[in-house]
Amino acid sequence: MLGFLRGDDFKSSTIAPVDGSHKGISKDNVFKRSADNAITPDNPPETIFDTYRTMPVCDRVREFTPEEADGLSELARVKKQNATATKKAADKHEVILKAEAKINRHGQRMIRNEAEFEVKTQGYKGTTAK
Questions:
Q1: How many CA atoms are closer than 13 Å to the CA of 53, on its beta-carbon side?
Q2: Are 54 and 71 in contact (CB under 8 A)?
Q3: Tens digit of pLDDT for each residue in 83-118?
Q4: C-alpha dihedral, 106 to 107 to 112 to 118, nearest 10°
Q5: Does pTM surpass 0.70?
Q6: Within the chain, how many helices (H) and strands (E) appear?
């Protein structure tokens, strides 16, 4: 049984290596980003502190023409609609990401359950062989 746990009986078996050489388990593999541009502390977006702004800074007193005022009224209407749409998109984006996080969490749980099953099954076989 000790040979089984060391993997000696299978000549470097990958069933139960104990020397840290598990296939597929490395820092680069375990902590691989979900996307190349995924946001992490080590990979913040270059635009992280950008500010959205359509109007130029009004840094002095000036008068506006009636046409400019009408244009600002139309721009204000469009921006209000876009702000509402952006909020809706951000809310749905959050819902999607939370759902995907749950899928990933449960998927990892399933993988762990499969691994635990395999360990138990191999242990039962080892006991039977003994």
A1: 7
A2: no
A3: 999 999 999 999 999 999 999 999 999 999 999 999
A4: 130
A5: no
A6: 3, 0
Instruction: State how far the Cα of 21 lies from the Cα of 12, in Å rounded to an integer.
Output: 10
Residue 101 half-sphere exposure toward CB, CA atoms < 13 A: 6
Residue located via tokens 């541009």: 37
Amino acid type, 121: T
d(CA 68, CA 75): 10
Q: Are 81 and 88 in contact (CB under 8 A)?
A: no
Give residue 47's Cα distance to chain centre.
Answer: 19
Element (H, E) at 72: helix 66-129
Phi, psi (deg, nearest 5) at residue 36: -55, -35
Residue 25's pLDDT is 80
Share of the chain above pLDDT 70, in %: 84
Number of Cβ atoms within 10 Å of the Cβ of 72: 13
In 17-65, where does DSSP find H-type helix? 27-30
Structure tokens at 120: 């138990």
